[in-house]
Amino acid sequence: MGKLIYSMITSLDGYVSDENGDYGWGAPDEESHTFVNEHMRSIGTYLYGRRMYETMVFWETAHTLPDQPPFILECAKVWQAADKVVYSTTLEEVSSGRTRIERAFDPERVRELKAASDRDLTVDGPNLAAQAIRAGLVDEFQLFVGPAVAGGGVPFFPAGVRADLELLDERRFGNGVIFLRYGVGR
């Protein structure tokens, strides 16, 4: 059975983007990107909202851009090898392989995906993750906390949700980012 993981870059005050939509405070450097690549190897399926998919689909063609460093090429390879499910009522077609569109988030279907999977899954994007969190589907939270205070914007955690968490791992990177990995207490 796979775990469902919610992982994003956040500001120190817990925002995935500020009020203007900016989120560059924790942009990965080579060290942190290599770490992310290693974590991505365990992922068999990415669950995306439309906006997050439109950001991440870059990895479908990243390997075709000239002069890409090895860690970028590796990320593209790992991303392309995983399945992707995009939850959207407006997206007409996808532009990546191993990708399908679902019109509505169905918690029971996600439970079935987890139960049938021998690899982990991620839920990516705060709006879609909020639905999974409220449905009790998220097994693990992974935060890459960047060295900035956003002062407002889109929060990592949805309002009104409480959870008992257990710290499973932590790591500090040279660019000031701190990785925190928490398991969800049941």
UniProtKB/TrEMBL annotation:
Residues 3-179 form the Bacterial bifunctional deaminase-reductase C-terminal domain. InterPro entries: DHFR-like_dom_sf (IPR024072), RibDG_C (IPR002734), Riboflavin_Biosynth_HTPR (IPR050765). It comes from the Bacteria. Pfam families: RibD_C (PF01872). This is Dihydrofolate reductase family protein. The lineage of its organism: Bacteria, Bacillati, Actinomycetota, Actinomycetes, Streptosporangiales.
